[in-house]
Amino acid sequence: MSESSQFIPFNKPFLIGKELEYITLAVKSGHLAANGFFTGKCNSFFQEKYSVSKTILTNSCTSALELASIVLDIKPGDEIIAPSYTFVSTVNPFVLRGAKIVFADSSSEHPNIDANCIEALITSKTKAIVCVHYAGIACDMEKLMEISKRTGIPLIEDAAHAIESKWNGSVQLGTIGKFGAFSFHDSKNIIAGEGGLLFINDKSFVERAEWISEKGTNRAAFFRGELNKYEWVSVGSSFLSSELSAAFLYAQLEKCDEIQQNRLNNWNLYHTQLNQLEADGFIKRPYIPSYAMSNGHIYYLVCKSLEEREKLRLFLKSNAINAVFHYQSLHKSPFYQPLHDGRDLPNADRYTDCLLRLPMYYGLQSQQVLRICTAIKEFFKLSK
């Protein structure tokens, strides 16, 4: 099979280091449940690197957000402001608590929440603001934190895409709001198959978060030798990661710099190769505000219409390249449209219709990126 006909998937899970060795060690240790040796190594990695008050390794980013929602004691009738252009995991944890989701539009420049529209959505019932750092590109955290501090409404960062991505050049995303939730799903930069992490950036929430993550018990304090027995002290659930997932994850964290460099090289190659198409008015490339950066998680382009996006996607498919669309506006979803307040959110809808994600994974070769870009250029040349 020639290189030009070889299929390029959208995503491809990978091994890069000692994943299998560490999984074997975990099995031989006799401890496969949560809070073993590799769980500790993963938590220490993040706490030391980012100076976080507390990290809790979870079985998914969804669980991390659900944990945050219980820590904040979200109740029926509370309102949560969140972007419409996101995955359902951003809001499901709050819906499960009985909250009403007040959807915000995206920015006209990028898929992140439009920070300038937040204030008008706040009511006396607003109990949290959730922002999503789409593609690992920072939201307008200066504006969002100013609103949060002035109103006392907690800000939660859905940082599922944002491992190793910074705000203002040095501040790790997920460390700014009260909570930051990360994903290690196999489509992310650093993977564990399934997996997540909660950053707790306010020390007043640490004890309660421990209780809830330990099924509502104070078992964590017991295992640290602070109590002579543990008891049921709170509501809780089973959110924690197994040692097998933690072992796989820690092997990836050891190679974090190498993974990031590979992805950034490909992201930058896409960005350079597609520059002229944007200059000629065919597409929009990812917009990076001055306070943000790319972490190489997603490379996307924005077409002019749904019809054009679909024609391009099918053209790439015919050339053995799997590019995919992304989120569907949640305010128009079958589940939530009847509960939405009726506001139009045109930018969220535009990204729903027009955004196309290009293949991006560790191990994607530069020659493959060039082949993808050549195919995109050919599509627009033919469509003139």
Overall mean pLDDT score?
A: 96
What is the strand arrangement across the widest sheet?
A: 1-9-8-5-4-2-3
Biggest β-sheet description: 7 strands, mixed
Number of strands: 11
Q: What is the N-to-C succession of helices and strands?
A: HHEHEHEEHEEEEEHHHHHEHHEH
Residue runs with pLDDT of under 50 for 5 or more positions: none
Helix content: 25-40%
Quaternary structure state of the chains depicted: single chain
Span of the ends, CA to CA: 31 Å
Q: Radius of gyration, Cα only, in angstroms?
A: 21 Å
Overall 3D shape: globular
DSSP strand (E) fraction? 5-15%
User: Tally the helices: what do you get?
Assistant: 13
Going by helix content, strand content and strand pairing, the class is alpha/beta
